[in-house]
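Hi Y.,

Following your request, here is the sequence exactly as I used it, all 54 residues.
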Amino acid sequence: MKGFASATRLELLNYIQQGIGNPGEITRKMNRHRSTIESHLQVLVEADAVKIVP
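Below is the corresponding structure, written out as tokens. Let me know if you'd prefer a different format.
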């Protein structure tokens, strides 16, 4: 449940659900540092909420 315990991660999931999967684009839309977004994405990956697609 840790993956969903953050408003930022829920917002990330919303963008991903809209088809915006590029961390750089999400960073711009959320006005956050890329490292912050990548950290939150990593939590979601570890929680099996999202998968990294090359």
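The two ends are 26 Å apart (CA to CA).

Thanks again,
Q.
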